[in-house]
Amino acid sequence: MTVWPVVTEAFYLLNFSWKAQDNLWEFLVRGGLEITDLGQSAVARCRALMKKYRDLPMDLADAALVAAAETTKLRSVFTLDHKDFSIYRPAHVRRLELVPAQLVLEASTGFVLDRQRRPCYGLRGVPARGESFQQCC
Fold this sequence. Notes:
alpha/beta; 137 residues
């Protein structure tokens, strides 16, 4: 599950490559993610969260994801932004579980890896069906 502001940010981060953006479109079209609409109360909650964390600052994508997690009672989120998400305190849990649990930046490639040194898909590209991470990027 995700929200439109997160999808918008993902497309922005992938603006270096139409192929990467098109692979993300394909992933969405195939139903790889459910995109949840934010109701009016979630919009107000986003504003309150962004005000609370304005010193970071919290962007709309982060606020929308936290608000959606609160609304749906999710306890974990996939994010590469561990620095900020480790600070956020949603109303329904003490803190969100961050997936992957630990990130490592591979200096030679610039890819973000999880603690087993596997690539975190989506940062540099989104593989199409049957395509490996290396082929995608």
